């Protein structure tokens, strides 16, 4: 296949500092690069170092906290260099590796780099590691910062580490790395006029919609970027906006194009936001916070900011996650506004009063490390077997609280990943090898013991692909009837329902039409099949029974579901809740004093009656 013709690197602020950057990299093992969003950090730094010969002794790894950014930016760099993705330039995200022997510039999520360091702690395959978007302060990037600090002591002569960010406190990171240099890349940013609402709107979708239409009717040409909290809001907003634009009086405004932008959008739809608007047409890009700093959309002159973001929060008292809509921080609000001033003076409409911005918003977003369960990370650090690492004293940029580290140790103990003395167990080591969260890994290992590994693999794959079951969108009777044909779990719960759905698709020979007929996302279902194959390959070396689906065709018996539920209860032993028959509810047993005893009793109960609820990791 011929290679695509190169589009060539554009002239971005960072290009003018090429010599300065290379000189700093040459003279120091670690440097920090701070530059405005859109200055070219993600797409150009790797190319500069590639051009200057840094890929002769190893590849360049560029980490991204978000999968969507790893895919999108690598595609862009491949296009600029005129190569096909997966050759000189590639990407690796969990369950998807588009790299080859030839790959010199590799974009990968921070989680994938952590995983690579499990099998290759010195990361010898890389001559340069760029930790991009460090201001996002993802848990994995924070752990990588600590690991890089150790690594450069061992590889001072042949490894270069760059930490890049749009808003990070450069001095703090520099102090963390014993005073390494900080390069500031000044960007051109035009003034952005900010308009505040007098009150918080009761319905921010409706309010954003009205503001967007107002801009379309009254303002000069220029694209509009609208921040929403998640996919559901975006879908609603896109369809309502299209409808209202169509109903505007004909000829009253220029044409309009409404485009969604979020992490679960198929790549071919994601790239649409990077094509400029057609003549006499205004683009409305309705996005999540991926458009804050991860992906730079050119042509934006107006920003509509609802002031909210969806954030995953962990509650140690229940051991559960929730996905909450919360207020953004002032740093986020400023980043959002800044998107309007990249090419010319712009306007930002903030759907909240300025007093809320000043007094209610936090200065900066709370780093993920302070609002997440650390069980997976602690297990990972323990499995690295670093002789001098005491988990409670690991060198973090912002250390997590002692409570959350202890909470992680307790969780790991409950699912047998560590023993009483805190040492990683054999089970824990197996768990760390699986690219899943500890509870799901533990479920697979237990399922292997109980003889239901094949079913558990399917459940783990479908959960990892985040397939959602929605109400049918079909308006006709036939569509509704088809949807009702989907298995319902036969009273065995959501996990069994997911298993049955996947098995029905297997019976239909993986026909994509079967998915669309039943209102299931074809892409998500195909992805879960792919994930299942990968997981089953990884687990082969310990598998005691068949992992393929063929061996199970047509078998759907109660004892098998019972075994699967047992495995899930062991895996999620730290998230069990007891049914309170007289109160019509459930009582979590996570952190009572006699916790271990309690879990043990409950475990026995589950074995006997199945009268327990095993909660999945995120509740809405
Ligand atoms: P930074 O990392 O400093 O925020 P980037 O390197 O991501 O900056 O972006 C630099 C330029 O490259 C921007 O103008 C952006 O629009 C463009 N760009 C980035 N990714 C893509 C893509 N996938 N397709 C087209 N253009 C892109």
TrEMBL record:
EC number: 3.6.4.13
Record carries keyword Electron transport: no
Protein name per UniProt: RNA helicase
Catalytic activity: ATP + H2O = ADP + phosphate + H(+)
Keyword hit for Nucleotide-binding: yes
Helicase C-terminal domain segment(s): 208-385
Molecular-function annotations in GO: ATP binding; hydrolase activity; RNA binding; RNA helicase activity
Annotated organism of origin: Triticum turgidum subsp. durum (Durum wheat)
Keywords in alphabetical order: ATP-binding, Helicase, Hydrolase, Nucleotide-binding
Domain of life: Eukaryota
